[in-house]
Every structure is written in structure tokens, then in C-alpha cells.
Design brief:
The protein is α+β, with helices and mostly antiparallel strands. Helices cover 16% and strands 24% of the residues.
Length: 170
């Protein structure tokens, strides 16, 4: 009974192990080291792989124009924005407060955005109506193609005030 792990003996004596303690510990150490290295390489590749091909930072399909009622404000979670529709058209408002970057929820009962962190208040076009926010909510470019609403979340636009030209006709 020959073993590649035994030292110089080819036929161990009865009652003696086929592998020495030193050989076993060396094998266990290098196996553990190899496993750690393999896990590290797998984690690195997992980290470097893109999370998704679509989503925030690119073109987002918000829905069909008829899905958004005039006077409504709809949250599009995948794009981190609100789509506000007025009689003039659509505007996509970034949900990030311009004061300190908190997520700003829409309060339907008051028809306003309320920042939960420091009390900034914005109207349906993203203009500041109260609080410490220095400027209106940022907007994203909106395009309507064949009745479908697409928003480019890769290009937020800072603005100093609301202008009707910021609305995309729908």
C-alpha cells in the first residue's frame, strides 16, 4: 500500500498512519490557501461585473403616455425619479433633495414634495416653496417615442428656477 504523501517509507508498519502529521498539516495549509485565493478571485470578478445593463444612469422606460393622468405625479422607482404630468406635458424630477441629497417623497394629500430631513418643500414642478433647499429639484430629459415615455437618467440637469420649456409635450 503505497502513498504519495508518505515520506520515505513505501510500506508503513502496521498501526502507523499512511501520511505523517507534517505532510497532513502542509496539505491542509496549502489547500486552505488555494481555496482563499480562489474565493478572492471569484469575489473580484463578481465586483467588477456590471450589475445591470439597464436602470438608473441610462434610458428608463417609464410607461405609455396614457398611463399618466393629467395632474398626476408618479414615482418611477427603477429610475429614482417622479414623472409629473400637467396639461402642458411631462417633466421628470430627480427624487434627490437639492439641500443635502435626501430622498424626497411626494405627499398626495398636499400635492407637494416634502423632504423628511430638513423640511424643504417642492411643488409638482420641483420648485422650492419652503425650507432650506437652494434650488429646484433636478430634472432628467424626457422623450416620447410612439406613445412611450423614456427618461435619460444619465443626464440630470441642475436648474435655478422652473421654466415651461423644461416640460416635454405629450
Amino acid at each position: 500500500m503505497s502513498s504519495s504523501f508518505s515520506q520515505t517509507k513505501t510500506n508503513p508498519q502496521p498501526g502507523t498512519p499512511a501520511i505523517s502529521r507534517r505532510s497532513f498539516l502542509g496539505l491542509a495549509f496549502f489547500s486552505s490557501l488555494g481555496l482563499l485565493l480562489a474565493q478572492s478571485v471569484a469575489a473580484l470578478f463578481n465586483f467588477l461585473r456590471p450589475v445591470a445593463s439597464a436602470g438608473f444612469g441610462g434610458q428608463i422606460f417609464a410607461g405609455r403616455v396614457e398611463e399618466f393622468a393629467i395632474g398626476s405625479v408618479n414615482r418611477i422607482a427603477a429610475g429614482r425619479f417622479y414623472l409629473s404630468r400637467s396639461e402642458e406635458g411631462l417633466v421628470a424630477l430627480y427624487q434627490k433633495c437639492t439641500h443635502l441629497g435626501c430622498a424626497v417623497p411626494w405627499v398626495e394629500e398636499e400635492s407637494q414634495f416634502h423632504c423628511p430631513c430638513h423640511g424643504s418643500v417642492f411643488d409638482r414642478h420641483g420648485e422650492v416653496t419652503g425650507g432650506p433647499a437652494p434650488r429646484p429639484l433636478d430634472i432628467f430629459p424626457v422623450s416620447v417615442k410612439s406613445g412611450e415615455v423614456w427618461v435619460d437618467t444619465g443626464k440630470p440637469t441642475e436648474r435655478s428656477k422652473f421654466d415651461p420649456s423644461q416640460i416635454t409635450g405629450a
